[in-house]
Structures are given as structure tokens and as C-alpha cells.
Amino acid sequence: MSQSINKIIITGADGQLGMEFRHLETQFGQWEFYFADRTILDITNQESIRNVFDVIKPDVVINCAAYTNVELAESESDNAYNVNARGPENLALQCKAHGTLLIHFSTDYVFDGTKSSPYMESDATNPLNIYGKSKLSGEQKIQSIHLEYLIFRISWLYGTFGKNFYKTMVRLANENKEIKVVDNQTASPTYSRILAFDVLTFVERMESGRIKPEYGIFNYTNGGGASWHSFATEILRHFDIIPIAVPASQFPTKAIRPTHSKLDTTKWVRSTRIPIIDWKIALQQCIASDRQSHSGEQ
After folding, report:
1. What is the pTM of this model?
2. What distance in Å separates the CA atoms of residue 187 and residue 205, rounded to the nearest whole number?
3. Is residue 44 within 8 Å of residue 90, measured between CB atoms?
4. Domains (range + CATH), the chain
5. Which is catalytic among the residues 109, 131, 158, 191?
6. Of 285, 260, 282, 109, nearest to 189 (Cα)?
């Protein structure tokens, strides 16, 4: 890393992952954080980005802005590409002009799910749906423009903020409804708070010289693998509910999803020296945080 870090902009600051960075702000008090939602910084608008950059002059931009509705993307492809591809392109252009490190998040859905073993960063991509295609396009645009970037491919992101699978299961449990969950799609659940903490720790270690700066694409998930059903089972056992396992064919969707999209995180561990936490342990941390917040202790 060519310079010390003072200022970090978080785009998409009102979303699930952006809120996690906001939650962690005080733990990384050596940096000034600027949290920008779409009303402050619209990544699809070059002038909006330019204005914010000119005022703040950030050393790092962490892009949490994304179009994440996999199903709706099939009928809103223009919106998906605008946010997931043109947005990162706009950010990369400004980051290059200002010498700013760009951190961006992609997805396991850039792969088609036909590989029997976990996907490595170097494996051929072949997204099956518009969401995956738009995210892959965003990766490629960043790579074609800017050299100092970190792209993290993540899977099955969940947490206590925003809309996600964990919160849906908790809601259904509280509604005392019969819960059916797909059991023939597998990946690795990833707790958004641990992701945010580890990403900031990675940047901290690069800045301090503890590790050699390494740019490029990294796979990041919590450890181990799960089906949606086994993920749901771990959540719902706290409610004494056992979900019913069903094949994906029982939930017809416009968007085709990969059957097996587990990511290999060897490169992450080797480069960052930050261990990967097993997804079940990460989930317990999420549940504990959720309960604490609802009890008014947080």
C-alpha cells in the first residue's frame, strides 16, 4: 500500500453490509469513516461520485452498494447492470484518478455450480442468472480500469441488518408457520459482521506492513458448507422448529441458481493470515448479537 490511510468512504451505507461497517466504526478509530447512502453518493452517477471525492479525498472506498434481488433482476436487468456493473466502473475511474484503494464485493453466483469441489478464484466463471452476470461484469470493469482493488466473492450473506435468509427464518418462526426449505443447493453461509471486521483487519495489516499488499480477487466465506435446509435447521432449533426439506423444484423461480457454489478460501488465509471461522460458530455469534440487541443491552 503506497500511503497511510486516513479517510474511508462506505457506499451503500444504509444496506446490510454497510450497516455492519457502521457498527464497527469505533473498533477502527484510527480512521475517519464517511457513511454515504444513495442520497449522498449515487454510484450510478459519475458527477455524484466526483463531488464526494473532491470534498473528502478518500484513501479507501468500500463499495457496499449493490442490486441484490436475484429473482427481480431477471425482469429488471437494466437496473441490475446499472448498479452492479456501471456503478463499480464509475467508482474505479474515480479511484484510479485519486490513487484510492477500491474494495468491492461480488458473489459465488459468478459460477454455474457444476464443479464438485469448492471454486477457486482462478476457476472459469459462468453465471446462470442476470444477478450473477451483472456482478461478473462489475468485476471485469474494475479489473480493466484500476490496479489497486480488492474484490471479495462472498456467498449467502446474512446478519441482523437488512433483509436476508437469517431474518426471514426468524420471522417465519415467530409467525408459527410451517417452514419448507430447499435442501439441494449448497454453499457457505457468511455472517456480514465477521466479513466486515475481517476486511478492515486485512486493510489494517496491509497499511501497517504486517503483510505484503496483495490486490485482486479473493474468495471469502465462513468455513464449512451447508444446504439452505441445514442452515435453516441451525437457526430454527433455537425456536424448537424443524424445517421440512424440499427440492428446489418445489419453488419454481425465474432465476436459475447454482447447485453447488462453495468457495475455496485458501488464498484469503494465505494472504491475510486471518483464519476462517466455521459457519456454525459465526451463526451463534449472530444469534447472540441479535438477542442482545432485542434485550436492549446493546
Report:
1. 0.94
2. 28
3. yes
4. 7-162+190-223+263-277 (3.40.50.720)
5. 131
6. 282
